[in-house]
Amino acid sequence: MLEATKKHRILIVEDDELVAIFIQLKLELFGYQTVGQTSRGEEAIELAAQLRPDLILMDIQLAGEMDGITAAEEIRSQLTLPVVFLTGNKSEADFKRATQANAFGYIVKPFSDQELRAVIEMALYKYQAEQRLQISDLALKAISQGVVITTPDQKIVSVNQAFTDQTGYSSSDIVGLTCRILQGPATSPASKQAIRDALSSGASYFGEILNYRKDESMFWNELSITPAFDEQGQLTHFIGITRDITERKSTLEALQQSELDLLEA
């Protein structure tokens, strides 16, 4: 859903003055704020930089030498703003260019109030969702511990850089596989079974397991797995947090051996 507390600001780029006025009236009726209006692509680029609107309604055919798609591409190279294209024809070439320009929506004139409102709402929703994903991705990358996210059937959909540093497996290496790729001959069968039991019941898991890196070297992994559910209570993902504790285990074993040596002396 869109953020209800914010009145979204929209820039109109339309070469037909009557159509632009009509759109502005409709936007105000829908509860949006029109922050600017122009009929030229060059000016649209300047206004976008100055006003930083939440969305741009961009006619493909504009006054001047620059068309709407070219203007949108230039804006996109400088700013992250959603653009919805308006057009008076159903040109396949224009549609293809608009798609390549990362259009958040495309609407053919004449359009109804419902069509205009639906396209704008969908574009804003899509943009907000993309921004949340980017923020989540940045957060994952910033976490010092390994993070691996899987589907309910344990297929990996995402890993962060710390996971790659720990295991040697990049996202392209491992997405679509399961974490069983980290297990090997010395991995405890009891540990593997405990993880399977937790996942099959949608429960959490915490424990230590001997895993294998991509280069087949072994490391001790302190693993925490948490199930994630949607609003309906359906399992959507498992989130695993991994930490290389090999050095800690080695230090502990050395201390224990020293104690044994002292007792036997």
Describe the structure.
With 265 residues, the protein is α/β, with parallel strands linked by helices. The model has no long low-confidence stretch (mean pLDDT 88). The strands form 2 sheets. The chain has a 5-stranded parallel beta sheet, sandwiched between helices. A 5-stranded antiparallel beta sheet has the order 7-6-10-9-8, sandwiched between helices. The protein is built from 9 helices and 10 strands. The longest helix is centred in the middle third of the chain and has 30 residues.
CATH class category name of the largest domain:
Alpha Beta
Uncertain residue ranges: none
Shape: elongated
Number of strands: 10
Structural class determined from secondary elements: alpha/beta
Task: Estimate nothing, just give the exact number of structural domains.
Answer: 2
Q: SSE string, helix = H, strand = E?
A: EHEHEHEHEHEEHHHEEEH
Walk across the major sheet and give the strand order.
2-1-3-4-5
Q: Helical region count?
A: 9
Strand content: 15-25%
Major beta-sheet overview: 5 strands, parallel
Whole-number mean pLDDT: 88
| Share of helix, binned | 40-55%
CATH-assigned homologous superfamily of the largest domain: Response regulator
Q: Per CATH, which architecture of the largest domain? A: 3-Layer(aba) Sandwich
Q: Compute the CA-based radius of gyration.
A: 27 Å
Distance between the termini: 71 Å
Report the CATH topology name of the largest domain.
Rossmann fold
